[in-house]
Amino acid sequence: MSTLLEIKHLCVCYSGIEAVRDLNLYVNAGEMVCLIGANGAGKTTTLKAVSGLLTPSRGSIHFEGELISGLAPHAIARKGLALVPEGRGIFPRMTVLENLQMGAYTRSDPAEIRRDIDEVYGLLPRLAERKQQIAGLLSGGEQQMLALGRAMMARPRLLLLDEPSMGLAPLMVQAVFEIITAIAARGVSVFLIEQNAHLALKTCSRGYVMENGSITLADDAQALAANPAVRHAYLGE
Ligand code: ATP
Asked: Is the C-alpha dihedral spanning 223, 186, 126, 33 positive or negative?
């Protein structure tokens, strides 16, 4: 299995204070990997560094063997990484269709873009029903689906997901995770950040636990879910 994303000795600071410290992790092609941890552990900071929104103070991030740390977010996106940020980041005044078209902004193949929009509608029929609706009027779950659909329009090889369950009702959380699994089944690798450790470990094959800016555990998701320390701290047991 080839390594898609490789993070080595990553440190990220805010005004000189380290929020991420000597972090090492990798995602292989075809894998679904999660990073779990409490509020403020440094998960979002890690994801922002991978997507180019924050510049690491030390360490390196490689994607398909190529150094991407230090590149601008749009240059990283062009290499095949698509971020679905916390809060979804959709354009609330645009329609569902316009949001999907925006997701393809790096592409210049109109026929293929139309075909991919149809494919997204096939994967997410709720979006097809609401294609002319203003995105800001969608429910939270539908907005999360739109954010996933928009990310798919860039034809990513790695999807970076920041807390997709955030603020959603349990049934909608289930639906969103089924969609993420369906996206992965199409060959897109997934790096998922979640506070809902139960769901993240059930969905992914491997996981990392982050505490106070550092990785404290790394293992198969099943082994993590069975680990007494994880069960106590993150699974409410
Ligand atoms: P959450 O689930 O709440 O998003 P997280 O694990 O994603 O938590 P981060 O948001 O990465 O954690 O935050 C890590 C640390 O960095 C926290 O102590 C946080 O207060 C701090 N931090 C985050 N953003 C900033 C910022 N813009 N300026 C200064 N400190 C920040």
From this structure: positive
Number of CB atoms found within 10 A of residue 198's CB: 14
- The pocket around ligand 1, CB under 6 angstroms, is made up of 14, 19, 37, 39-45, 195
Return the pLDDT at 164. 92
Q: Which residues contact 78 (CB under 8 A, 6 or more apart)?
A: 106
pLDDT(87) > 90: no
Q: pLDDT-derived band of residue 40, with 50, 70 and 90 as boundaries? A: very high
pTM across the whole model: 0.93
Q: Separation of 41 CA from ligand 1 center, angstroms?
A: 7
- Nearest C-alpha to atom 23 of ligand 1 is from which residue? 45
Average pLDDT over residues 187-196: 95
Whole-number Å distance between alpha carbons of 9 and 22: 4
173-188 burial by CB neighbour count: b if 16+ within 10 A, else e?
bebbbebbeebbeeeb
